[in-house]
């Protein structure tokens, strides 16, 4: 990867599909090692932001603006060049693990692939590291599980395999799109511990404000494809200024009140 150490800089990122504007001049910066949350209601453009960062927007999408990864402009790069930055420069945990896993390959080989591709490990060393990553991700009986195929795993297990794959590449930046949605509370806490221990910068897409408060330093709020509010997470949650942010905070508080044992 070329360039300096300027972080992940997104400026006026715009995505249009079939004449419809999905993202409208989205702008934010993630310094090295810092974590940015991206929040918003369903349809606000959160997942499209994540896909655009990876250069994986839908076929036919028109993308403009700038995405600079440590000084290298990614928008407009041919796909072959863009692919060189995926995995080690910028990695992703997809919201739907079915989009990331090959149904015809054992999951162990899929976790090991970025270890061999980006770090030059031989098959045996990559297998040992894949086993350790599976354990870190809280996968049960990882030695047996890594011999299985994706369809033999539960949704939550497939999600943890995808997390292990993304972490295996040791990317400078990790884009995580709702990475804990399919997980129970205990496993979610373990995955957040794993994320917190990474040196990577992160763009963390979530609708869960409790997760946001734990994992992110700052956040941007999307509404209809636009950034409508930004700032420190604690300030956004304590004193939201835009109606879209206020609605998210109000909904989160209502959920807590309805939860047995929640605040009353």
Automatic annotation (TrEMBL):
Location in the cell: Cell membrane
First-listed, main subcellular location of the protein, grouped into a coarse class: membrane
Source organism superkingdom: Bacteria
InterPro entries: AAA+_ATPase (IPR003593), ABC_Ni/Peptide_Import (IPR050388), ABC_transporter-like_ATP-bd (IPR003439), ABC_transporter-like_CS (IPR017871), P-loop_NTPase (IPR027417)
One Gene Ontology molecular-function label: ATP binding
Keywords per UniProt: ATP-binding, Cell membrane, Membrane, Nucleotide-binding, Transport
SMART domains linked to this entry: AAA (SM00382)
Topology in the lipid bilayer: Peripheral membrane protein
Classification of source organism: Bacteria, Bacillati, Actinomycetota, Actinomycetes, Micrococcales
Family designation: Belongs to the ABC transporter superfamily.
PANTHER family xref list: DIPEPTIDE TRANSPORT ATP-BINDING PROTEIN DPPD (PTHR43297:SF2), OLIGOPEPTIDE TRANSPORT ATP-BINDING PROTEIN APPD (PTHR43297)
SUPFAM superfamilies the record matches: P-loop containing nucleoside triphosphate hydrolases (SSF52540)
GO cellular component: plasma membrane
Organism: Curtobacterium luteum
Domain ABC transporter: residue ranges: 8-249
Name assigned to this protein: Peptide/nickel transport system ATP-binding protein
